[in-house]
Amino acid sequence: MSLHEIAQQLAGYDPEALHLDQAREFIARLLPAGPGGELETLPLQQLLGRVLAEDLVCPFDVPPQDNSAMDGYALRGSELAEGRETRLRMAGTSLAGSKAADAVPPGSCQRIMTGAAMPAGLDTVVPQEMVRVEDGHVHIAPGLIRPGANRRRAGEDLARGQVALAAGRLLRPPDVGLLASLGQVQARVFPRLKVALLSTGNELAAPGQLLQPGQIYDSNRYTLIALLQRLGCVEPIDLGLVPDRPEALRAAIRAGAEQAQVLISSGGVSVGEADHTKQVLAELGDMTFWKLAMRPGRPAAVGRLPRPDGSQALLFGLPGNPVAVMVTFYALVREALLRLAGAQVEPLPLLRATSLQALRKKPGRTEYQRGIVSRSADGGWQVRTTGEQGSGILSSMSRANGLILLAHEQGDVAAGELLDVLPFEALM
Ligand code: AMP
Ligand code: MG
After folding, report:
1. Is 201 touching ligand 1 by the criterion CB < 6 Å?
2. What is the average pLDDT score of the chain?
3. Residue-wise DSSP of 313-352
4. pTM of this prediction?
5. Upper half-sphere CA count for residue 386 (Cβ side, 13 Å)
6. Fold classification of 351-426 (topology level)
7. Which of 56, 240, 280, 388 could form an S-S bond across to 165 if both were Cys, CB 3.0 to 4.6 Å?
8. CATH of the domain spanning 3-37+192-340
9. What tens digit of pLDDT does each residue of 59-76 get?
10. What is the Å distance from ligand 2's center to 212 Cα?
11. Are 376 and 361 in contact (CB under 8 A)?
């Protein structure tokens, strides 16, 4: 489907004041069906942040056998006396790591440690601190324990044949542990999505160079590389700082499409832009240029570039302002990259925080303000902004610990209202 056709499918599509939801919908329709490339097989230590390519089916019950949840005494629940003390002879000891002991004779119990297999026929464990032990016998007061208590059942965690982790899972630390607990030494994952980055702008100098009058350092490329590294399933390819000349831009963009499935540029897509980025993008690919109804981050470009192998590279032209880059990356790019890398994406958890101040907000655009979230006296969350919200103030992003989300229709906020905040720890 061409970009033009996608635009026609979206009711009320207006590239001059595009609702963020519609921009997201547009991008979702641009994405190819599934991740490409050869699967990789990686050892456990290299799986963090990668995307599982095949269902992990549980090869056995977890736990493999009934076992004790406590240090105590295993017994038959049916032998617990009602209304009077139960007295059982101590038959032996079951330690964790040994195979299940044989049945003990009626009227007996077995000393048992946490994790040890339940001896045959025994179904209940009374914790050691609840009993009195006297001349080889265990005395249990009435009503202390219910039959079946403190026993972990075979397969209660995971049953054999059950899908323990589904394909598309973005692997987190407990997932890696889960693979190990099922005896796996490796897993099949999708290849990392290759994402090329470039900065353009005649005012930019690379860090390490001496700043000439009028120049500023290129920070966006490094912010973006770091954002991509955080995703884990993406491999950033740095195309560098590209001089603002049509031939140089053409060469860099072509090289990017050759090496990567996605190309991200920053700067050069604003209205009235004096440089050549927009023009060269439009010439090389099927592009659309947006003015987004959002703040920060009004200008953006999205499109497709042909690759030498016949496939298409996705291109995101992000605004140049350092805060706008991060916010548009979060709002438009992050989820698309995860999907392209094969991941099943889930919504990021938000905090509900009380606003410590009144906020100005115009209905008709989505706003992301830099917030500092802290604990309030009543144990909830409270949030204040970092102050001046200019989209060039990179330090405000660094001082913030979350983004305050102000929805499209939202108007001014009064102090004390509840706001949605996206904590950075969930994101970066
Ligand atoms: P533009 O979108 O190209 O008009 O850029 C908007 C603002 O962002 C300008 O003040 C640029 O100097 C600044 N800017 C653009 N690219 C970068 C970059 N890579 N690093 C830091 N600032 C940038
Ligand atoms: Mg520029």
Report:
1. yes
2. 95
3. EEEEEE-SSHHHHHHHIIIIIHHHHHHHTTPPP-PPP-EE
4. 0.90
5. 21
6. Beta-clip (2.40.340)
7. 56
8. 3.40.980.10
9. 999 999 999 999 999 999
10. 17
11. no
